[in-house]
Threonine dehydrogenase-like Zn-dependent dehydrogenase
Amino acid sequence: MSAPLINRRVLFARKQDARFVEEPVEERALREREILGKTVVSLISTGSERGGYMDYNDNMAYPQVTGYAAVLEVVDTGSAVTRVKKGDLFYASTPHALYSQVSEEEILPVPSGLAPERAVFCRFPAVSMSSIIPMTVRPTEPVLVTGLGLVGLMCSQVLQNFGYDVYAVDPVQKRRDYAKKCGILHPVAEIADVPGMAGKFGAAFDCSGDETGIYACADSLRQGGELFLVGVPWRKTTSMDGHGLLLKIFYGFLHVHSGWEWNLPRKSGPFLPDSHDHSLNKSLQWIAEGKLQVDGIALVRDPADCGEVYREIGDNVLQNEASCVLFDWRSY
């Protein structure tokens, strides 16, 4: 009789307390279309998971499982699984855990030859694609992206792939350097560094979640422009009030949209080709084809170091070093 599998996972035990914990894998037969996978790599966005760790508004429930982007190797499958077999790699939006059980409907097989540490990035271009796909502004107009964390960096690349002239703003030099390395043509520290563009942008995507970024976007749009709030506004960061922003929206005839990634349906259907799943597939395709650059933008860490990693994220240390953190699970 084989020994039971021991799972390891990253857990927020309480506010600002990340732990690497062990627990037995649930012993049960897999459902017909279920897959047991062993995680190879999982990816942290230094913005998205920060809110759950920091609990800025004291409204989080703990303990809290975290993470939502991983590449896993198939350990076992249910009897009706057809898309993957034992030993194959697949992407899934599973948490930071050594083992996960997931439905076949919720996976993307990783193309042959694509490294798992590249494939795992496919989740993050899909975040902004939920805003880009319904946008009415066409590629004949310039667009603005504020915030070059992982989501903003991917947003900028996706927009360029669609043919837009993209101006990407971030005050952190290292982030602008990453953007340039990824092929972004106009990374700047502030919009003032692009003379003559104020009031010329057809659309703006704030990926920072910061009031200053949102105000800058509103100032930069043409009349009737579109403003997408992609970054999560986890906390108040300035003393700015909302009245000035309301004036810009009202008299600028601006269209303001939530950038919530689930604005699109999870799956495509008849007459509805666009979906979150479709965006993930397109992102994975573009990464495999080299149309989305992801190499060298992540720090690689052992998941056992999660306490230190999340502390550095909360203290704004890692944001100045890399766009994200990759947990490598291959030693477990």
Notes: Residues 28 and 101 are 11 Å apart (CA to CA). The mean pLDDT is 94.
